[in-house]
Fold:
Amino acid sequence: MELSSKLLPLLNSFVEKGPAGCSLNVMRDGEKLFEDYIGYSDIETKTPITDESIFRIYSMTKVVTCTAALMLYERGLFLLNDPVENYLPEYKNIQVNRTNEHGEVYAFPSTRPIRIKDLFTMTSGLPYPGNGDETEQQISSLMGTLMEDKRVTIRDLSKALTSIPLAFDPGTQWRYGLSHDVLGVLIEVVSGKTFGDFLKENIFDPLEMKDTFFKIPEEKKHRLVSLYNRSEDGILTKNLSVDEQFHPDTSLELGGAGLLSTLSNYSCFAHMLACGGVGNRQRIIGEKTIKLMTTNHLNAEQMTYFNWDYLRGYGYGLGVRTMIDRAEGGANSSIGEFGWSGLAGTWVLIDPKEKLSAVYMQQMFPNFEAYQQPRLRSVIYSCL
Structure:
C-alpha cells in the first residue's frame, strides 16, 4: 500500500508536466507489487493507456539484444575477446579517422581489431549518426541513403558501415552508437537464423511475449501509443515521422532501437533477468552469465567517456548500466542494479539481489529521463 501511495502521485505529476500518459510495473520475486496506467495513449481520441498499449521501446531493445547474444556465448559459439572479423569478414582491416596537428582528418589502420566485447560495451568506435566528428557525419550521410530502401537489412547496414573509418581505435573510448545493431548481425551469423526469428524462438515465445516485435501487425496498429513532441511551454504535438521502421513491408531489424513491446511483455523479460535467468518456469539464460553482464567492463580511461550526469554512480556492463557507487549516484538501490532506457522515455530497472524489476513506459520527445528515472528508483527502493 505504501508503494502505491508514493508512486501514484509521482506518476500523476509526470503526466501533468510531461507525457500524455504513462504506465509502471514493479515486481519482486514473482509478486506484482505495483501496476498502474495513467493518462492517454492518444489525446485526440481520448484513448486511455491500458495493459494492451504497445510502446516504441527504442534503446531498451539493447538489453534484449545483449541477452540474446549472451545466450549464444553460453552455447560456445563465440568468445567475448574474439575479433568481430572472425564472424563478419567485412570488418577486416578496419580504419580509424585521425586528426593531424593541422586539424585535417585522415584514415589510418586501426591499432587492433574490433572485438565482440567492444560491441557489447560500446567501445567499438561505431557511433550513432551526428555532426560531432567526421565519422558521425559520414554515418549520417550513409544511413540517410540506406533508409530510403525498405528492403535494406541489418547485414546490409553492417557491411556499409565498414566503408567508414571508426571514430576511435577500438577499446580506447566509450561512445553510444551502432554497436548493438552490429551485434544483431553477429547473432544472425552464428545462429543461422534471422535476428527476429532468433529472438522470437529463444526469448519471446518461451516468455509468452506475444506483443513484442520489430514490425507491428495490421490488427494491432490501433494499440500503438501515439508519440508526442513536447514544446518548452508544455504543448504536446503528435509526431508522425518516426514509425517507418515498424511497417510490415520493411526488412530492417535494429538491435539497438527496433522493438515494440507492452508493459507486461517487457516486465516478463525484465523479471526473468531479476530472477536469475528463469521466467515462465523456463531457464532463458544462466545466472552466472547475468553476473558477467552486470559487471562493470569499462576501464578508467573508458569511464571518462561514460559521463552522462544522470547515470552518475553507474558503470557499464555488457550492454547495460550497472550500479557500482551508490554514494556517487546518490542512489538507494543495490550495487549491481542494472538496466537501460529508451529514447521516448521508457526505462527498466533490474535488481538480482532483491529479485526486483521495474518497467516504466511513456512516449514523448524530449523524454525527461534525467528527472523521472532517478525519482522512480528512489521511491521504489524506499518501500522495500
